[in-house]
Write a structure and sequence with these properties.
Blueprint: E1 10-14, E2 17-23, E3 29-31, E4 35-36, H1 42-55, E5 59-61, H2 69-79, E6 87-92, H3 99-113, E7 120-123, H4 131-146, E8 153-156, H5 160-169, E9 176-180, H6 188-196, E10 200-204, H7 217-226, H8 230-240, E11 244-245, H9 252-259, H10 268-275
Parallel strand pairs: 4-5, 5-6, 6-7, 7-8, 8-9, 9-10, 10-11
Antiparallel strand pairs: 1-2, 2-3
InterPro entries: AKR, Aldo/ket_reductase_CS, NAD(P)_OxRdtase_dom_sf, NADP_OxRdtase_dom
Keywords: NADP, Oxidoreductase
Protein name: Aldo keto reductase
Length: about 290
């Protein structure tokens, strides 16, 4: 039936809010809607996290290269939300790849985020010039997983071929692949490959930075039918097709709007309409 109808998400009460979730291959539960922290300035982090917490977000997607993990850690502490009610993701950056450097990078991220463990740790990008270095990085993630310093491990921006190379050497297979995904980059083949190999899909840039996507007449027509905004329809499409997502906004009203997507679902025909907008168009680095 394909990945379009492959959602096996549950609706659970997560952090006090009803949230659709996915279950990773090792049994860890991940909220399908998270809050992205890319390009949030340190001076804005406190208010951004405060607003996201108030809206109901408990899943936060972070990365060392974003340069704001220390500020995010302070905001987590100030929120008063229990650590066990949060799902925190971070990623090891290209310059920190390699076994020993990855272990050191994790310790720095954990220190900055003021946590003893991460819920999910990802390789941010495959090393295009030296993939053996990326495989060493994967071994480090396996070590962190075995030491219970991370609850789940995965990759980001990996192709089918790169994933197969990881499969060939891995003791623990990737549980997540985070990839660019929006209506102009549907990722049907890679998304299905991930599902076939028990990998949960995550989609970054879920509304494509708003690049004409939110002005598309077909998306607007669907939005009007549901009494929702175009952004809410695109985010709902992501979840209805099985992708974990983490939109970002520094505007409180938009943060709340993005969270308000669990009271409707798209029909199969509406999902097909949005899928048909695919242009295989990267809006980020390929």
């Amino acid at each position: 039936m394909g990945y379009v109808s492959a959602v096996t998400a549950q609706r659970l009460k997560f952090g006090g809010y009803h949230m659709q979730t996915k279950t990773l291959s090792n049994g860890v539960t991940i909220p399908m809607l998270g809050f992205g922290t890319y390009q949030i300035r340190n001076s804005d982090v406190s208010e951004a996290i405060k607003g996201a917490m108030a809206a109901g977000y408990r899943h936060y997607d972070c990365a060392h290269i974003y340069g704001n993990e220390a500020a995010i850690g302070e905001a987590f502490q100030a929120s008063g939300v229990k650590r066990e009610d949060l799902f925190i993701t971070s990623k090891v950056w290209n310059a920190d790849q390699g076994y020993d450097k990855t272990l050191a990078a994790f310790e720095q991220t954990a220190k900055d985020l003021q946590t003893d463990y991460l819920d999910l740790y990802l390789i941010h990008w495959p090393n295009e010039k030296n993939f053996d270095l990326t495989l060493d990085t994967w071994r480090a993630l396996e070590t962190l997983y075995k030491q219970k310093k991370v609850r789940a491990i995965g990759v980001s921006n990996f192709s089918e071929d790169q994933l197969n190379q990881v499969f060939d050497m891995a003791e623990v297979r990737p549980m997540v692949n985070q990839i660019e995904r929006h209506p102009y980059k549907v990722q049907a083949e890679l998304g299905q490959f991930d599902i076939d190999h028990d990998i949960v899909n995550e989609g970054y840039s879920p509304i494509g930075h708003g690049h004409m996507i939110l002005e598309d007449p077909k998306i607007n027509q669907i939005a009007q039918a549901h009494g929702k905004t175009p952004a809410q329809v695109v985010l709902r499409w992501q979840i209805d097709t099985g992708f974990v997502i983490f939109p970002k906004s520094s505007k409180v009203a938009r943060v709340q709007e993005n969270f308000d997507i669990f009271d409707f679902e798209l029909s199969a025909d509406e999902i097909k309409t949005i899928n048909a907008l695919d242009q295989d168009k990267h809006l980020n680095y390929d």
